[in-house]
Amino acid sequence: MHRILSDLKLVLRQLRKTPGFTATAVLMLAFGIGATTAIFSIVDGVLLRPLPFPDPDRLVTLGDQVSGTEWGQHDPGPVTGPEVVIYPRDTHSFQNLGGFGFTIHELSGIGEPAQINGARMTPAVFSALGVAPLMGRVFTAQEDQQKSLVAVLSYATWKSRFNGRADILGAKILLDRKPYIVIGVMPPDFEFPLTTGHLNRAELWVPMSLLPQELTAEADASWYLNLVGRLRPGVTPAQAQSDAGVVAQQIMRGFPADVANLRIQPVVYPLQQITVVETRPLLRMLFLAVAVVLLIACANLAGLLLVRAIGRHRETAVRMALGASALTLLRQMILESLVLSLAGGVLGIGLAALAVTAGKDLLPETVPRMNEIALDWRVAGFALVLALLTGFFCGLAPGFAALRTNVNASLKEGGRSGSAGGSHARLRSTLVVLEIAIALVLLAASGLLLRSFSNMSAVDLGFNPENVTTASYSLPQKQYSTQAQIDGFNTQLLQQLRQLPGVQAVGLTSTIPATGDGLELFNVEGYVDPRGPDRTVASPSQVIGDYFQAIGTPLIHGRSFAESDNANSQLVVIVNREFAEHYWPNQDPIGKQMKVGGSKTKSPWMTVVGEVADAKLTRPDADAAEQFYQPVAQLEKDSGALAAPTDLDGNGGYIVLRGALPPEQMENALRATVRSVDAQLPLTQVQTMEQVVAQSEAPRRFNTIIISSFALAAVLLAVLGIYSIIAFSVASRMQEMAIRMALGSQRSHIVRLILISGLRMAAIGCVLGLAGAAVASNVLRSFLFHVSPFDPVVMILTALAVFALALAASALPARRAASVDPIQALRGE
Q1: Could you read off the pLDDT of 696-733 as tens digits, one per residue?
Q2: Which of 33, 182, 416, 626 is deepest in the core (most CB within 10 A)?
Q3: CA angle 778–783–784, rounded 5-degree value
């Protein structure tokens, strides 16, 4: 211990004498370790940390794989209302199994009315999750069956919307203008459903209270709910899935005739796995990117330490001549590296803390469990261990280089030149070549993502988002309990919006592009699906007013909907091009017929009166989906036997407004108009259509920006590595350069000599980097859009860019070498 303390004092004293070297090494490592730690905090919070529930490994989701859809293949799969009752009742593998669904409520009576996210849940969900409320209680099975108006608040909602009132239990709140009694408040870290991002978190929970129409035979073909459960001890997900499969066979035997051909297969996924299924590839790629940056930073540190060790070879030779052991020299070299890496690690933790705090809001909404992302002791411990490993391995190369010092040669007069041995030069060159190769791999990945994002930005969206304002609304059932009241609101709203200055077109719709899609079973007259009957599904939209003109979707054939398309006229439908080309290839779709439901569903035929362009439903880079549009006024007749007397159509959705005024003015005018029709009705998601599209592009944009940032950092570090190695090489060969010039060598020859040395390393690094990019590019395949993983243009431009930067990094030392005064250099020696 005494020797180590003595060596530590020596190391600190030597580092103080060279503040430039010390600061460069520490800052370089701080950047590498800080970036790695920041990304690891995200990986830890989202992927590695167990879910915040007791025994989270026993929590699973149960859903359906439905024939003709991709449901359940990569996600939990939805279930129907009847299945929320049947699966928990008839399966035996679950300790608790409950259903839940997402809801949006109008919260009023406490200031301005607002729409808030909520969830309908059966009490078994709380039992399965095993989290007790912070205050009060959760609802009971009896309250669920009796449809009691009770609510449990999230901690954030209790604090933000109710100011943390101590007397909140028993208080009445208005949800959809109905009085609900608050019976509980959940703990601060409770979140369910585990949605992506933070904008969609549930702010409260109410009983599922399934309505009669949600339990009818027709509801057997309506998938919109979810199941979560806790496995019994010793039961595996595979066993639970087999158990549920038996129940699924019973469910299908009870299907009504119109959906009797549908096939369902239950799937069971661990809740932890399904929560992060969309995020795992992104986070893995980010972690690989920062690992590359850290690797380059380590190579630079090793190179700097090697240069430092070679520069001190005379000192090392003197110490060895005086009896210093090889172990002592190696220990001191490693200790010096550890001091630098620990200092860089501590500073990196600070930088990571700032990055995590400032950067959480920049993460795309596809990242779940954002509240779990934090720089805690586990992440800090990871950073310190990383710093220790970095310091140890980076200290080995200069340590062994010092041990190979030739004592006799270094102590001779000619040893003053400081020329490095061939093995040392090869080691330094190898480090630089590896840095260039690794940086090129990351830069190539950045180039592929940039080109992919450029391709996505140039995609035809199928609509024109410019000058379009949108807003979401939902009419409360208490005030709008009849279809006549809903129709009156919609008619009055459209009339007043059309009269606003600058408004060019306005419409209402159940869905807008770039926000997601739903699927509905339908049947095309004369079409035989090769997969079997009742396998055809498409994305439906219900519209009112001049929706296509407002959203800017071009009409290709036929006509748009008119006011005359009502319940007393011919039933009509508009399809998109993808739909028309699939079911009526090389034919005019106008006049063709289709109906909702299966082949045996007693629903009337609708006539196609128009064909429109393919509007991107989710992301600009998504494939075109089959879509059909129905006028809301005909929905009840379109549904035929599927319709129920209690069905209400057009009671919520999106307002789409195209205008010539600036977006801020259009938004203000839209809010004012809605308040004039219903003073208490809140609007949510009031934004331009360009903002909606930008949000759908956010994940790919985030991928591109973050990888490009790391790529630029990697290239910068690699260029610094080239510069430092070339600069040292020039400094150690000053005597040689002076002799060459004294013997008549031109300064241009000296510049060429230095440049060739740098470019040789750059060329080898580029070749290795291109080979590495070819191997690594397959990792990016799922992130690319209309770009080959080994796109020749990207690869060539990347190699040229790295080569040019290497040339620039070599130019300054070459110029310095060419400007040396031979007389002074030889006299100094």
Answers
A1: 777 777 777 777 777 777 777 777 767 776 676 666 66
A2: 33
A3: 80
